[in-house]
């Protein structure tokens, strides 16, 4: 699962026994060599879809990590891009790897549940971060995103179709979540990271409650499942133009 440049087992154990923030500070220098980073194929497909819909003015990448999503925004935004994360270590890596050309980038260290912005953005993205939020936190999180979008602005993120029950991937993710729940029951501080906690129906409902109009764009590069549904799609949540 990890390249030779990735973290060793001991490093992962120390990270897993830390808080989420401290864990990602420790992992940051090697994060891009782990399977936790969003694959380039998903990033490229998202960029292509946003190019067809754009261009946009200002963009925010929520929970930006080492900056892969910021790179996407810099290809589709003309004015400026902001990367936000609560891990100083991840932001340090992101800042060091960002190079011209492209619009200027601002880095912000803050909690996504308490965004330090006004209605400043035309486009907000996020890649692979929602497993760090408990289901009861989604209304507040989506409300925060809604509050920083300009009228007509969009909140866009990719979602992968859930694995079928009984498949190897289903068992792997179920096992990972079970281990994390046991860990959090017996160890403090908690480390919130659940792959199966972000449910499609709950996400859709909470986006609507936050005031968004929600559409789904299939990313055809990844094909379709046997029932005809896309394997990967973009969630496109739009704030009303008025």
UniProtKB/TrEMBL annotation:
GO molecular function annotations of the record: methyltransferase activity
Domain Methyltransferase: residue ranges: 60-153
An example Gene Ontology biological process: methylation
InterPro entries: Methyltransf_25, SAM-dependent_MTases_sf
Keyword Transferase: yes
Domain of life: Bacteria
Keywords attached to this entry: Methyltransferase, Transferase
Keyword Protein biosynthesis: no
Protein name: Methyltransferase
Taxonomic source organism: Streptomyces pilosus
